[in-house]
Design the sequence.
């Protein structure tokens, strides 16, 4: 096996590891374990977490404001170790791509970019804990996880193309390609809205569907809901915003989902008209799955595994769109 094929295999492993990190991050957040370890990178001063009665007593003395809870520490520690493993893998991938022969400049650049992103993610991980889940930092940390996963996925696809020496492309009109390009900012804005909703614990601000509190537009505070300059200092576990502010975030995310749905259905139709039925089905299928998961979260009041799947569904939409763009050419 030559070096580029080895890098491709490592990238594939990294991709699956990144998916797990995103899923574990969602699990940690949804079970309110974001501060399951009040320090970083250790947990109550331990490499894993305190286990004996003496260790737990000492941990509670050191952090009286955050008593040790095993059920909260386990998700946080598991997520940290998976994220740390991913970071080491990406840094190793970057170093290997530099010294491998033949060296591919594109792979060196993209793995270098991922390495910088991973180091930044580590810094955000520290601030997530030290600033007690400040929504701005938590949101950037979640978006960084999406960006890391997408980059390593594209790295794998590019390496596969290089190693095979060929790739299958989807031919579309210039207009379809333009609409495909605009799909990225639309989806990314919606993902940001979802991340902001999650960081501010606004998922259940509206408990009915398709209405909210029995009306289309209930009373909501959009100014406070989208105040991105919230003060540093309070403990943001569970959120600090009032109910009307959370309703505002929830409603904007819902209407954003409507925009994404209409746009992506139109995109799927255009690919079908160009006889690219696989792409059309992929876009429509991922969109439908995400809509079902989103509505289920509301109706069934945020079941843990459905909520995690909804987080991953947004990521898969981004990955699917990235794959389609990489393989699409104007005819």
Sequence:
């Amino acid at each position: 096996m030559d070096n580029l094929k080895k890098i491709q295999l490592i990238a594939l492993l990294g991709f699956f590891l990144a998916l797990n990190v995103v899923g574990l991050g969602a699990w940690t957040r949804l079970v309110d374990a974001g501060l399951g370890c009040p320090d970083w990178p250790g947990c109550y001063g331990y490499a894993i977490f305190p286990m004996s009665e003496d260790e737990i007593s000492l941990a509670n003395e050191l952090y009286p404001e955050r008593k040790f809870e095993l059920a909260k520490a386990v998700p946080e520690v598991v997520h940290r170790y998976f994220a740390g493993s991913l970071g080491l893998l990406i840094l190793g991938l970057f170093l290997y791509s530099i010294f491998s022969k033949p060296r591919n400049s594109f792979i060196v650049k993209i793995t270098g970019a991922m390495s910088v992103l991973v180091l930044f993610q580590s810094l955000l991980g520290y601030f997530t804990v030290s600033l007690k889940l400040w929504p701005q930092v938590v949101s950037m940390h979640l978006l960084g996880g999406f960006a890391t996963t997408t980059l390593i996925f594209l790295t794998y696809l590019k390496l596969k193309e290089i190693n095979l020496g060929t790739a299958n492309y989807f031919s579309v009109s210039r207009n379809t390609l333009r609409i495909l390009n605009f799909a990225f900012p639309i989806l990314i804005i919606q993902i940001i809205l979802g991340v902001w909703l999650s960081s501010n614990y606004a998922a259940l601000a509206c408990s009915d569907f398709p209405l909210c509190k029995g009306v289309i537009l209930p009373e909501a505070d959009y100014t406070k809901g989208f105040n991105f300059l919230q003060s540093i200092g309070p403990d943001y576990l569970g959120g600090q915003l009032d109910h009307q502010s959370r309703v505002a975030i929830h409603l904007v995310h819902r209407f954003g989902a409507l925009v994404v749905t209409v746009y992506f259905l139109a995109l799927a139709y255009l690919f079908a008209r160009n006889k690219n039925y696989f792409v059309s089905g992929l876009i429509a299928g991922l969109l439908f799955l995400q809509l079902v998961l989103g509505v289920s979260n509301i109706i069934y009041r945020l079941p843990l595994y459905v909520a995690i799947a909804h987080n991953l569904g947004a990521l898969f939409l981004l990955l699917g769109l990235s794959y389609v763009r990489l393989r699409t050419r104007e005819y």
In short: The first strand starts at residue 170 and ends at 172.
